[in-house]
Amino acid sequence: MREVVIVGGETVPCLGQGTWNTGERADRRADEIAALRAGVELGMTLVDTAEMYGDGATEELVGEALSGIRDDVFLVSKAYPQNASRDRLERACEVSLRRLRTDRLDLYLLHWRGRVPLAETVGAMESLVTAGKIRHWGVSNLDVDDMEELVAASGAACVTDQILYNLGRRGPERELLPWLTEHGMSAMAYSPVEQGRLVDDVDLSEIADTIGLTAAQLALAWALRRSEVIAIPKAGTVAHVRENRHAADVELSAEVLAMLDDAFPAPRGRVRLEML
Predict the structure, then answer these.
(1) Residue 244 near residue 219, CB atoms below 8 Å
(2) Residues designated as active site
(3) pTM tops 0.90
């Protein structure tokens, strides 16, 4: 699988695994755990979660799923903005670590911007790095103006900005993605299939049929066409994981990309960063 270079020269797979809305139903738990483990076996070793998901239940599921294979995974979690202060971030991180059954996170993100000054969050993140509780830190749902402020607040060590980016949400292409590339930061695309809604798009399905893909695979392959983008789709079954994994091996032709541009045109002007 193609890899993406992050700040510091480390590499991660371009296709990872999201976990939003997992761990919340007992009747799905076994399938969700099997899906995460299968994804790791298939090379989708970046696993993303958050303290917000299921009020911690998702982190607990991820911790169970990664039992025995933790060292094979690049593990990502996210902190609530109200926990991103100097006084609260360490405790929030420790709670996540306990739920995840690990002694460190590979990447810890500010989930979205709140009232805590970015400079204070940067300092708190760097303290966690020094303490060995996280290896890298980053942000989520921050637009260009926020990122400029972050860097000005001694935040150049930020590894990634996790953002809503897919065929129907192409706003980041105007300014944010070029800015991240210029500053050596990756973009982590959440909801790359728009929480499954793109699967039902008629135009996308027709284009996918012409090249022997599912609509979801085409949406993922499109997001992965950019070298700085890491996509983190969620899958609740092993079959769904395998379907997603195939997308990382797809190279889209100029003709197909043109068809997608016609069906899902990029914005002509700046669009403020959207979030779910």
Answers:
(1) no
(2) 53
(3) yes
